[in-house]
Amino acid sequence: xxxxYTSIDIGSDxxxxxxxxxxxxxxxxxxxxxxxxxxxxxxxxVDQDLVLERLxxxxxxxxxxxxxxxxxxxxxxxxxxxxxxxxxxxxxIVNDEKMVTEKDILRVQNSVVNEILPNMELxxxxxxxxxxxxxxxxxxxxxxxxxRICDRLGIRAVVVTIPKSTVISFVKVVEAAGIExxxxxxGAISDFEEVKDDELESDVVSLINIGxxxxxxxxxxxxxxxxxxxxxxxxxxxDDDISYVYYINRKNARKVKENxxxxxxxxxxxxxxxxxxxxxxxxxxxxQYELSxxxxxxxxxxxxxxxxxxxxxxxxxxRYIMVLGGIVDMPGINFVFQxxxxxxxxxxxxxxxxxxxxRFVTVSGxxxxxxxxxxxxxxxxxxxxxxxxxxxxxxKVRIGKSDSIFGRFFNYFFDN
Length: 416
Prior knowledge:
About 35% of the residues lie in helices and about 30% in strands. By secondary structure, the protein is α+β, with helices and mostly antiparallel strands.
């Protein structure tokens, strides 16, 4: 059966939905939708009705593209007030062969999620490694223990928790739109899943995701998230500056930035101009070079604050720093990265067919991480039924046991 997955990312600026088919180890985009968000501020849902209204628009859009309804999805959660803890646990291997199975891996992961504070919600468990024990003695530490012989299996993992109120607000609005939430995913982990390569997985790296009104800074050590911080500032301050300098409304300021702006004066053309009307309907001519100076100043400010925050998040030497978010599609952005971070800066171009823009990194990575979890648990799973898939094919769509919330999703893979 075809395996098809949906991910939803509800941001302060945009709601994004991606539907992808996983076949022969690769993802193929079936449909993608991106609508302006309302009711979200600084990464938090502040007006559920407004969010629901916009989310339904995105769902209707993406469903119409594939001609079947979206019923299930992964949702991403921002790293606001996230806590990261290293945990250890072990369980006996109870089958007669003493061979580690997928069920044993699930059991040992479940053994480390019991000590979550009542006000916090489990969002991610990332195994670091597994330890095989025989007669009480450690015999080997490995990444994948499946089919190995031992009498006890241990785990070392990083557990990520988010305030329960934040998680509930995201889950409720998605369920109110008629979507069953299959899994939760920390946005920063989704980002890393999309951008990772052998170099990033073997060293200490940082991801800086610049959103509309928040910037998320995350630290990964050998592919495992160890810390994260959220700054209450993002690309919106660039729009505010453009609006103030040229006396134009924010909507026009954003349009100027996206259609004409460049990130560095080194890349700007002093002879190029863009005309727009100010709030008094007077025609204003904007010079690209002067505009680039405004953009560059604010981008440098965001990145320098993020750079200082890195010193708080880790005392380890950071090998690479990668900046993400829709802003990185702006011409000349690499000059800014190099000015701030030097040779540590690393860029990423999303190369999944059908999604070539940086703003889709998080939704794409969420699906990839979900697939990895399914493989580790030895499961076959699709978010669309056989009938849905048949309808998809026949229409020849072509498009370029816990009381916690997490427990509902986590236990699904234990019990089915």
